Amino acid sequence: MVVYIPSMNIDRRHEYPVMLSGAFALARIELERCIDAGNRCRQPLLFCSLSALKLLGIPIPLGHRLADDKVHVCVSRQDMRSTVKGVNFRVWSLPLQKHHLQDGISVVDPITACMQMLAFCSREEAAMLFDSLMCRDPQRHMVSLGEIEGYLAGVASFRGKKNAVWALDHCREGTDSPMETRLRLRIEQSGLPRPEVNHRLVHPETHEVWYLDLAYPQRKIAIEYQGEEFHATRAGLQRDSRKIAALQGLGWAVIPITAESLSSEHQWLIWMRTVKDIVAQKGGLRSLV
User: Fold this and answer.
1) What pLDDT, on the 0 to 100 scale, is given for residue 20?
2) Are 44 and 75 in contact (CB under 8 A)?
């Protein structure tokens, strides 16, 4: 298992994409809090769940129900719990792997960290966590779908396992961002078939390679999430313009969406109406299956 740990490269932020800068900042803050907690505890601490996500650079689920003002630690037995200010102890008896970071900090493995979160977030955010572990970026990719499947097949029931089973059926390998996962799931919940993730398209003349965020390739429908990190810069706008023009020239319908449209119910309904109109023009829902 390859583990990406931002806290081990805290001063090399310039070597990573823009979207990782937030993970570095969050990891730095959490690392300092974990070091402080470790200095105040007599026993070695194994950081887990929310703290582990932050230290490992895994995106944080929206609307989770764990305390952000505490560090989270797991122990294998109830009698190992302590009362320490700012530290939340949790009993976790399932098998896990330990990873040792700098300054004597130990953290659970990425799969365990995500499983420990599933009792405190929605099933959609559980799928986002699984997607994030299997993302396309090799610097952030941590596990395969088979490893997640193997973990769930090999462990007994635990709090959050129902969310895990649902998420396993709805997660996808090779995604790019949490927002794209949320978009994909919401499209499915709106009655459309599951779109393909990061469909690879090679231009027949220029041989440029494009990756479409979400696509129904059989009907040449592409859905592109316009995230601020990549699309608000001059270079990003130029890249998007060239990509959209090329796709349209090849007969693709390109439907962009922003975070604002995804978060506003009114704008979402308008956007979905546009998508369904285009689907109807391209042959209807049955043609997408």
Assistant:
1) 54
2) no
